[in-house]
Amino acid sequence: xxxxxxxxxxxxxxxxxxxxxxxxxxxxxxxxxxxxxxxxxxxxxxxxxxxxxxxxxxxxxxxxxxxxxxxxxxxxxxxxxxxxxxxxxxxxxxxxxxxxxxxxxxxxxxxxxxxxxxxxxxxxxxxxxxxxxxxxxxxxxxxxxxxxxxxxxxxxxxxxxxxxxxxxxxxxxxxxxxxxxxxxxxxxxxxxxxxxxxxxxxxxxxxxxxxxxxxxxxxxxxxxxxxxxxxxxxxxxxxxxxxxxxxxxxxxxxxxxxxxxxxxxxxxxxxxxxxxxxxxxxxxxxxxxxxxxxxxxxxxxxxxxxxxxxxxxxxxxxxxxxxxxxxxxxxxxxxxxxxxxxxxxxxxxxxxxxxxxxxxxxxxxxxxxxxxxxxxxxxxxxxxxxxxxxxxxxxxxxxxxxxxxxxxxxxxxxxxxxxxxxxxxxxxxxxxxxxxxxxxxxxxxxxxxxxxxxxxxxxxxxxxxxxxxxx
Length: 471
Hints:
alpha+beta, 12 strands, 11 helices, single chain
């Protein structure tokens, strides 16, 4: 059964990805050295072959000129050819009629080629060619001499190339083995800082000790990686500290309403078990007690919802969109009136477009209005103004309450912070903290000041956006 095309490359890719970085570096170094040795072998062999051939051809030309001079003096048919001495030099005289003369005892040469015959008959002056006879390769040089030609030949000796190839093969094997060892050593030394980083990260994961920074060693990429990990550890430390503070503050804030709710519930249960509920608690007191229980449950519900919003921070599934902030403010004012009918809200808004998350922005505006409504007298409305200033959308929420003391201004947006004169009022101390989170997430700024009416003036500045092209 044939395999689907592309299966093998994917298998090799998966195999390669499973290898460690050290193994990859070793393989790459070994492959690079192998390719380099092979390229050097090919280049060296080609250069050696060219040099040997050039030397052999020069020697053949020199010997042919000497033989041609002698043959022209004595005549091709009468020139004396010394007996074959047993060397690798072979000679032959080509007569005008095409016949040949060779020394006594000399091995037979390849037949005279057609090109060499034309040289003997007066065509080109000389000719260098390769010929084969009996499995041996020959370099044959033909030179015009008198009415014929002389030929000097030599067997092509490839033993130097063979010896060179064997030597290069041995050297190549040694280089490959050495390259593998060097590559592994270089990989081990080069990856030692990463191994230490990995060990430190594993230690942090096992011990959960986020206070132990990783030593900054090495340079370049290693230093940047170390600093990135240390920055990540610092962020984790801050996150863990924030979670701890949130849990401690939540426990502190939950303790009071839970204690009051538990005491009231125990009182009702104890009186009911004794059968003295009606006699011990008049209808008016019982109604007030049940009202207190309901208020405490509502306070706990509000606190739980605000804790959830605060714990989520900037993380939200809500997508960012282009919206008119005036619509968001109007919707928040409508919700504030429905939740507390006795709150008066006076709107003075103009259309200003921003890029943001509608629900988060509406929650922030609603918290500002609720906070202002808590302090503003019943006959004084909460004034909400929205306008554009330069490249910003400015929202101001103004109340006619007692204002914020100068000592409390720096901590107005802190979690669970409540001024001394606000302890007796309902609330969790989380509303303005949520406002700060929303504003920060939208790249804006939240400030507090004293209004012209003597109360608090909370001001939000958000980056404005161009309105849609369809408007």
